[in-house]
Amino acid sequence: MMHKYPYCASTDFKNDITELCEKCPLIDKAKVLIDKQIEPQVKQQQEILTKEQFQDYLNNEIESAQNAMKRVKLLDLQNNNGDNFRCNRIEVYILNKERIKKLNEFNSPPIQKVHRIDFTNNFDEISVEQVYDHFKEGLLETNYLTSDELNIFLKSAFELKEPPTPLLTIKNSPPKNKIMKVFYEYYRDLAAKPHGRQKEYAGLLGNNFQGYDTDNISSNFSKTVY
After folding, report:
1. N or C: which end of the chain has fewer CB within 10 A?
2. Adjacent-strand bridge partners of 209
3. Is the pTM for the entire model greater than 0.90?
4. How far is CA 133 from each of CA 47, 104, 151, 209, rounded to the nearest angstrom?
């Protein structure tokens, strides 16, 4: 017969089963069971399944544990928290809560996509790292271009010095001045306004993106409207 911890059905116990008592001995009991039974089972599955199959297995096990916790919570509400089986419900709830924690330890961290610098700067003397960082901040991190689109732009504008086919499109419809400012700041701050090349720098935007006119951009560069 399961030992009944007095606080599990006492008036002092928190009404919400999701708010467990601090230092509840049932938590340690659940962890022992998980370490002895559940963890070895998971490791065995990890050895025999492919990565994709193992991920599906983890997802299914986590979903199963979550559903068990929901059922226990519902039963607790239906029985007004005070029947003789509350200790059993709490133990099941804790066991599945700790089970989910253990399963999540086997979940691989999300793979961060590495943005590779894959172009040569034949346009000016600025390092490819500086070029990349500037336009990554202004166009990629603002969600105006995808990573692939940024790479196409850098390859076309700085290495090949030819417009991409088709021309690129700025996403999310920002004000045009906001985009022109990104290119003006490259011209002003990184390139230091090289003499006689203003229109070429305006063309980094006007020649590679739909909806932007190089002459108009160059005129705005002259006005320093940013």
Report:
1. N
2. 168
3. no
4. 42, 35, 12, 19
